[in-house]
Design a protein that fits this description.
By secondary structure, the protein is α/β, with parallel strands linked by helices. It is about 60% helix and about 15% strand. The strands form two sheets. A four-stranded mixed sheet has the order 1-4-3-2. It has a three-stranded mixed sheet with strand order 5-6-7, covered by helices on one side. The protein folds into three domains: about 220 residues, Alpha-lytic protease prodomain-like; about 80 residues, Alpha-Beta Plaits (2-Layer Sandwich); about 110 residues, Cation efflux protein, cytoplasmic domain (Alpha-Beta Plaits). It starts with a strand and ends in a 5-residue tail after the last helix. A hairpin with a 2-residue loop joins strand 2 and strand 3.
């Protein structure tokens, strides 16, 4: 792993302070308008439902009442989710929208349970006189118009700002459109029962309420599934595959080792590891990581991306490159690397010989330099089995040599020469 080559692209919102403020203001305005619409519809439906005794309209009033609660929660959620990340919420506050959507889903399921219970009671056990008046049709007609307007506005804002809370609110208003149409049908059946003296048609109101409950349950289940998936950081498999495909196509990326994606409200986060050739220079690896970020953004626009660069040895890596990199891992420079075919190995097998110059700090003792050189040779033979012979030439580098004009005592010179001769006698491969 190369931590110095890790690339981090923060979400674009901090770079443009006005952008999140404008987006947050737009989301809050849409949510607040939905609260006002829910208040209007709840009051209208409740009044007409009590006046006519229609379970279908009362069910719609209860549904709209919960929509009012949900709209209030949505308004609160979009306010909180727009707050920037802090020390306790390093990924931001976007998950508040997922929690809001989950709570709204649970409210809808509770409403459906009550509607189903009342409808079954009226269909099988109780008789309730339903008054089908013109006001009922007017209220439900107005409800449909308002619901269509609000659901479109909410869904547009939800897609624009990737807000699950607004999407949940939009689905609530969208289900109201269908359920209101079913209630109108139920009221029409009540009128037909009176006109044609067919009492069984009067049960159409309760049947319509069951249809309303079925519609709401279906839509709520879909929303609940997406909400739970968001809370569990689940992402569509195709999105994961698209990121891998896009990053894998970046020149210099040998393999995409790991990809982790998560969505927090409107913000997407991506954390991935890419493998590059270990001979790549630091500047080149940095450029590859930057291109990998751009590839992720082509799939997830505006995502907060972290790219970890992992150097790996490739199958076609040259012996010269392997030698130079192994020396560098031990802090040694290597130059004048020469490779040749040889049959003069201790095992008398044909292979490749390597001859090189290793740059060793002149502050090291002969023993320390010998240990480092031997380690390079052993690592090279281990990494490249085809190498059967290594000849290393030591070159001292640094500023620890004696100043010009200063004599080195004969005893010290003799000690160094003796150590060199002893080392060369025991290691014929180096000189």
């Amino acid at each position: 792993m190369l931590p110095t080559n890790s690339q981090h692209t923060p979400a674009p919102t901090p770079a443009h302070d006005s952008a999140p403020t404008s987006a947050g203001r737009e989301k809050r305005l849409v949510a607040l308008t939905s609260v006002a619409a829910a208040v209007l519809l709840t009051v209208m439906k409740l009044g007409v439902g009590l006046m006519t005794g229609s379970l279908g309209i009362l069910a719609e009033a209860a549904h709209s009442g919960l929509d009012l609660v949900a709209a209030g929660i949505t308004f609160f959620a979009v306010r909180v989710s727009d707050r920037p990340a802090d020390r306790e919420h390093t990924y931001g506050h976007g998950k508040v929208e997922n929690l809001s959507a989950l709570f709204e889903t649970l409210l809808l399921f509770g409403t459906c349970a009550w509607i189903i219970y009342e409808a079954v009671q009226r269909l099988l056990f109780e008789h309730v006189e339903v008054q089908s008046s013109g006001w009922a049709f007017v209220v439900m007609g107005v409800s449909i118009v308002v619901d269509i307007s609000r659901s479109r506005a909410l869904m547009k804002a939800a897609h624009k700002h990737r807000s699950q809370a607004l999407e949940a609110d939009a689905l609530h208003f969208a289900t109201d459109v269908y359920s209101s149409a079913v209630v109108i049908l139920g009221l029409g059946l009540v009128l037909a029962a009176d006109a044609f003296e067919l009492p069984w048609l009067a049960k159409g109101d309760a049947a319509a309420a069951l249809v309303v409950a079925g519609i709401v349950i279906y839509i709520s289940a879909q929303l609940g599934r997406r909400t739970v998936a968001g809370l569990l950081d689940a992402v569509p498999a195709e999105t994961h595959d698209q990121v891998i495909e896009a990053v894998g196509a970046v020149p210099g990326v040998l393999n995409v080792e790991r990809v982790r994606l998560r969505q927090s409200g409107a913000d997407a986060f991506a954390d991935l590891t890419v493998q590059v050739e270990r001979a790549e220079a630091l500047e080149g690896a940095h450029a590859i990581a930057s291109n990998a970020e751009a590839a992720v953004h082509s799939v997830l626009p505006g995502a907060d991306v972290v790219v970890h660069v992992e150097p790996v040895r490739t199958a076609n890596e040259s012996l010269t490159t392997s030698t130079r990199l192994l020396a560098a891992q031990l802090g040694l420079g290597a130059h004048s690397i020469r490779t040749f075919e040889t049959a003069h190995s201790p095992e008398n097998r044909r292979g490749v010989g390597v001859e090189l110059h290793l740059e060793v700090s002149d502050r090291l003792s002969i023993e320390e330099a010998h240990r480092l050189v031997t380690e390079v040779e052993e690592e090279l033979r281990r990494a490249r089995p085809e190498v059967v012979e290594v000849g290393s030439h030591i070159e001292p580098v640094g500023d620890a040599t004696a100043p010009t004009g200063q004599c080195v005592c004969d005893t010290e010179a003799e000690r160094v020469m003796s150590a060199l001769l002893d080392w060369q006698a025991g290691n014929g491969s180096a000189c």
